Amino acid sequence: MLRKCLLILAGSLLATAVHAHRLQTVLTTISWNPNTQLVEVIHQTHAHDVEYALFDMLESQNGLENIRAQALASIELVKSFRLWDGAGNEISLSLVGAELEADYFYIYQEVDLDEVPPDLRIEHGMLRNNWPEMQNYLNVEYADSLKSLIFSGDDGRKSLSRN
Amino acid sequence: MKTKMIIPGCLALLLSISVNGQVSQTKGSFEDKFRQLDEILPTANTYRTASGAPGNAYWQQRADYFIDARLDEENQRIIASETITYTNNSPDILRYLWIQLDQNRFRNDAIGRSTETAANDDRLSFATLRRERAFDDFEGGFQISRVQEVRGDILNTQLNGTMMRVNLDEALEPGDSVGIEIDWEHNIIHQSVIGGRGGYEHFEDSDTYQFALSQWYPRVASYTDYEGWTNRQFIGRGEFTLEFGDFEVHLTVPADHIVAATGELQNANDVLSDEQQDRLETAAESETPVFIVTPEEAMANQEAGTDEMVTWVFEAENVRDFAWASSRKYIWDALGHQQDDEDNPLVMAMSFYPPEAEPLWSQFSTHSVAHTMDVYSRFSFNYPYPTAISVNAWEAGGMEYPMITFNGYRPEEDEESGERTYSRNTKYGLISVIIHEIGHIYFPMTVNSDERQWTWMDEGLNTFLQFLAEREWEDDYPSRRGDPANITGFMRSENQVPIMTNSESILQFGNNAYGKPATALTVLRETVMGRELFDFAFREYAERWKFKRPTPSDFFRTMEDASAVDLDWFWRGWFYSTDHVDIAISDVREYRISSQDPEIEFPIEREEEAEEPISLTQIRNEDLPKRVDEFPELEDIYNENDEFTVSNADRNEYTTFRDSLEDWELELLDESIAEGLLVYFIDFDNIGGLVMPLPLRINYDDGETQDMLIPAEIWRQSPQQVSRMILSTTPISSIELDPQLRIADVDMSNNRYPQEIQRSRLELYRSSNQGRNLMADLLVELQEAETGEDAEPGNEVPLEPNTE
């Protein structure tokens, strides 16, 4: 049965660009750290991509060079990364910090769990509205295996299971 | 040298058998990681030799173009005609030609357009909606009004998506040429909305345009010895396969435009002022950029406007494509790049950019162009053309054509002050993209690999050279790709395909076609082959295939042919598989050599046993009464002498042992004992599957350190687990595998013996004081300030079920 849908436009439109050789990506890794007994989430982004996408809100003429800009950027970016467990409960990640290293801007999150949940739903929209061809990659490290997802186009939530 | 290396004893060798012409392992689980690639690579022939060089009968077609084009700025449209002179150098008779019509990619019925997939859960971004709406209002694709043989009839054509077959009235014999005239028009895409490798950019503040035009004319598809017509549809990712030829191009544009293009300007007197021509002559002698059009002149020019048109004429020899850019906004600077080359002793390195690109571009662009030629020419061949151009197209640009490249990165403008500044990341991003795109003029614009089939052959090789050039720009250059440590996240991921995958089917495009092959070549150069062997072989490949069309096997074969290094295992692992590198030191055992003399050995063994920990039970039972204490008659010789007491039988056995040895064995034994030789057995587990050399660092008790490199061939008969023996006169305190991060090992937690607790990146961040506390405070402050705001992802079009 065909469902009819109502489209409501809202929000602001950011500049979009498609290109041949400048390939924007975010690589996110989720893993359980036995040293700290915490689940860690590490996002690796390209610093200039973040600066370009968020320039107006960074309050910095030097992009991510200062810590306030890094904090603003990380708060904004993690809004579009969300996790739910197998029962559909959202996992509340705390934002630990962020740092620049060479061309990369790293954002750190963590949550107090005994393991990486065996079933996850993930939403990974970081920067994807800025570049239609952008792809975000996710690696989830379990004790005995690694599972991966790719988010591209207008992809929304995706599921992942350890088994 | 402190250690001697000995390969341990024989391991079972399982033989492969041949069944029905296919080699397969039908017993056991042995996988031959070193199996030669002959069964996979195409059979060598007179066109392409087994050494990886062009064969004695190598041929390639030729396509020369005369193009006359007019830019309709007001309507963003091209109106043009061309004459293609096509020469059949193949041994085959051709009854038709295929013409590439890449603009047809922007038609709504194009394969790429009609196979775009929707999001996985009914979402729609503003960017997608904007693009969809733009397609509704845009008539894309070539509108071809005439295809005719020179001095002949209108030719029959058949359109198929982005390809057009032109049926020849008379078959084209080997060695013959045919001239074909084509008239066409097409609308130019708004690049930032539609997305593509060319198009126009509109500057709203000044209501001005710049045009960067690529894939803008009907181009002859390639006809090759390995595929025939390379006429796969252009879907959008796999780029271009083209023939070399000479171009004469007349470009009629508004009279106040400055034009940058493939080739050399032929009518400077008609289109440039005397002063601009004088400045060009000055620039040719300058090592630093000289303005041909100054920023002030560009600002004045973009405000003036004109209804007049003028024609710029360019000629280019032996190029595979032609692109150009045109705008009244351009600032233009240039310098003369000198090189020891008979054909092109002077190369004009030039940049064209709008005022919005300042103050960044005048400082870095043209220097980046010259630097690229300095480095790339050393690793391949002299820059093969008279000009090298960087144009600041749209912000996210990055695209290459012969002699001309379109590059992004601009400063940001502060809304209040109007001041333009740039960040460190913008600066290095600009330098990197220019190095990359100018580098493409070597690969694939000159080494003419088949981009539509194999993206890695130009992107991977070029990204590798880009990495080398970045390292020569300044120390600690923030390179994005090329360093082995940067590829591990991708290498371990599940969703990936081998490098040897057609362009349109690649997953994780950037990592697969750029990062992984660039890293592979870095590993080859720094760890597997060594710089001297690698550099010679790589240069040989470049020289062999300069202005020719190589395939992957030509690259693989040349690298081996010129170095005497068997690399089939490397190509097989890195290019034909999705294995990753995860090698673990699973165990280390230390031995000393025994003299067998009971008078020496037994006291040592007694001492060693005494040093062993006492069990908890024994400690707690110490005060319990023992029966032998109550009844002393129960004690005998074994209570008076421990197990390490030397007996005559022991002495006799020792004498017998020494008598049984040959003289040389006896001498070797006594020497080893005298030196205090220690024997270490190290076990390595190959968890990731990819066989690699083993870079080891041995740390000794006396504080000394020794690095050694065990070649990958150690895995040839046992690819999952191997052991090595190390002899040393000094005790070893620890062993590290790959301490310099040379082999892209994805898990460093198992690379050390004794094992050390590995700290995660987040833990390391926590332990560093630099700015961490300030960041924590800021996060609290800023997040509290946001309380109450919607945390949902923004910039998504809200969709609700329509219940009407």
Strand order, sheet with most strands of chain B: 7-10-5-4-16-20-18
CATH class of the domain at 61-115 and 126-243 in chain B, anyone?
Mainly Beta
**N- and C-termini, Cα separation of chain A:** 34 Å
Q: What global shape of chain A is seen?
A: globular
Secondary-structure element sequence of chain A?
Answer: EEEHHEEEEEEEE
Largest interface: A-B, 87 and 96 residues
| Class inferred from helices and paired strands of chain B | alpha+beta
Portion in helices of chain B: 25-40%
Unreliable parts of chain B: 3-20, 789-794
Largest sheet strand order of chain A: 6-7-3-2-9-10
The CATH architecture of the domain at 61-115 and 126-243 in chain B is Sandwich
Main sheet specs of chain A: 6 strands, mixed
Query: Helix content range of the residues of chain A, please?
Result: 10-25%
Description of the molecule:
The complex is a heterodimer of chains A (163) and B (804). Chain A has one domain (38-161). Helix content of chain A is 15%, strand content 42%. Chain A is built from 2 helices and 11 strands, in the order βββααββββββββ. Mean pLDDT of chain A is 84; it is low at 5-20. Chain A has 163 residues and is mainly β. In chain A, the strands form 2 sheets. In chain A, strands 6-7-3-2-9-10 form a 6-stranded mixed beta sheet. Chain A has helices at 47-58, 67-78; strands at 4-7, 25-33, 38-46, 81-85, 90-91, 94-101, 104-111, 119-124, 135-141, 146-152, 158-161. The longest helix of chain A has 12 residues, at 47-58. In chain A, helix 1 (47-58) crosses helix 2 (67-78). The longest helix of chain B is centred in the middle third of the chain and has 20 residues, at 509-528. Residues 3-20 and 789-794 of chain B have low confidence and may be disordered. Among the domains of chain B are: 61-115 and 126-243, Immunoglobulin-like, CATH 2.60.40; 269-308 and 338-413 and 421-448, Elastase, domain 1 (Roll), CATH 3.10.170; 450-576, Orthogonal Bundle (Neutral Protease, domain 2); 594-675, no CATH class. Chain B is an alpha+beta fold and 804 residues long. Chain B starts with a strand and ends with a strand. Chains A and B meet through strand 1, strand 2, strand 3, helix 1 and helix 2 of A and helix 2, helix 3, strand 25, helix 8 and helix 11 of B.
